[in-house]
Specification:
Number of helices: 5
Strand order of the largest sheet: 11-17-16-15-14-13-12
Largest sheet: 7 strands, antiparallel
CATH architecture of the largest domain: Alpha-Beta Complex
Order of helices and strands: EEEEEEEEEEEHHEEHEEEEHH
Number of domains: 2
CATH superfamily of the largest domain: Naphthalene 1,2-dioxygenase Alpha Subunit, Chain A, domain 1
CATH topology of the largest domain: Naphthalene 1,2-dioxygenase Alpha Subunit, Chain A, domain 1
Radius of gyration: 23 Å
Distance between the termini: 36 Å
Length: 357
């Protein structure tokens, strides 16, 4: 089950070129392309005649032509040409989806188009601020349900075992976690005091010796996360503000787009408060982050398979508190949205019956 009245990332801006770009989002087949002026378009990827994917057809100017019998659709999904027909066939239309471009990504609204407001897209406060450098990141497909990924992004503890050579070390094993639940999502965080700097971060911090480290794992509904990593010399860490001029700050933005119930497209980039213009630092960041995320990719695919084929009950740990609270709140939102949709459909049906009478 998915929350449909929400923005999801459909693609990186660079992935959408002159051709047709087929994709599956929330189980729906969608084709994306750009108009001549560069504006992105997203349509249902199924001709209403025999449901051949429109992505198997071709662009005709700003329109898209089906590769079977030439039915042609404009950017709104309306049929503008039906070869061999004296008039446009009834029902010759496809759904169009609202899009927005933000942060080098193309965002798609999967629900009621009238509710699509680009102002509600996940806010990246550091974007465009010269005090912050950016690692452009990338994307990958993970063979698991997206909720196993939200679990992972609300679980600071897993880095001690999954990322022993990168994000984690022994200091991450036992420190207790704190959880905050809000209307927008869930935050799980903790401070680790006077500990060794984990391997990935050790190559970038500007101070020497032990550190105070804060892990801030936050997932907002429906499936987008910001992971904040803070390292400062031991004894200087505080929630009241930065107490040291060599503090390391990295904010990792993570956007999960369900492909279907068993696969998830994962997009990410990081903002950093140091070496803002260094291409070499960005290269090392991107390389090491992708390696660490590939470790998650393997684990989460195996978790999905294990849970799908379990023969004995699974258990929960103390570290599962945040992920479980997120799931419960999201389930409630999905149930409310589904109920509202069913009521609306029933009302439409009653109105149609009334007009028919």
């Amino acid at each position: 089950m998915f929350l449909r009245n929400a923005w999801y990332v459909a693609a990186e801006e660079s992935e959408l070129g002159e051709g047709l770009y087929p994709s599956t989002i929330l189980g729906e087949q969608i084709v994306l392309y750009r108009k001549a002026d560069g504006t992105p378009v997203a349509l249902e990827d199924a001709c209403p005649h025999r449901k051949l994917p429109l992505s198997m057809g071709r662009k005709r100017g700003d329109d898209i032509e089906c590769g079977y019998h030439g039915l042609t659709f404009d950017c709104s999904g309306g049929c503008v040409r039906a070869p061999g027909n004296s008039r446009t066939p009834q029902g010759a239309k496809v759904r169009s989806y609202p899009l927005a471009e933000r942060y080098g990504l193309i965002w798609i609204w999967m629900g009621d188009a009238e509710l699509a407001d680009p102002a509600t897209i996940f806010q990246v406060e550091e974007w465009g601020d010269p005090a912050w450098g950016i690692n452009r990141g990338g994307n990958m497909t993970v063979e698991c349900n997206y909720l196993y990924m939200t679990d992972n992004l609300l679980d600071p503890a897993h880095v001690a075992w999954v990322h022993q050579t990168s994000f984690g070390n022994a200091a991450c094993e036992d420190e207790p976690l704190k959880t905050i639940v809000s209307d927008g999502g869930v935050i799980v965080f903790r401070w680790m005091r006077n500990v060794e700097v984990a391997p990935f971060y050790a190559q970038f911090v500007k101070f020497s010796g032990r550190c105070d480290r804060k892990q801030h794992y936050e997932v907002r509904y429906p499936s987008h996360a910001i992971i904040k990593s803070l390292f400062t010399p031991a004894g200087t860490g505080s929630d009241e503000g930065v107490l040291h001029d060599q503090v390391f700050l990295m904010n990792s933005y993570n956007f999960l787009t369900p492909v279907d119930e068993s696969n998830t497209r994962y997009f990410w980039f990081q903002m950093r408060n140091f070496d803002q213009d260094s291409q070499e630092v960005s290269r090392r960041f991107d390389e090491d982050v992708r390696f660490a995320f590939s470790e998650d990719q393997v684990i989460l695919a195996a978790v999905h398979r294990g849970m799908a084929n379990k023969r004995t009950p699974n258990i929960d740990l103390a570290s599962d508190s945040g992920p479980l609270r997120f799931r419960r709140a999201l389930d409630k939102q999905i149930a409310q949205e589904t109920s509202s949709r069913l009521i609306s459909l029933a009302e439409q049906g009653a109105e149609s019956a009334k007009l028919g009478a």
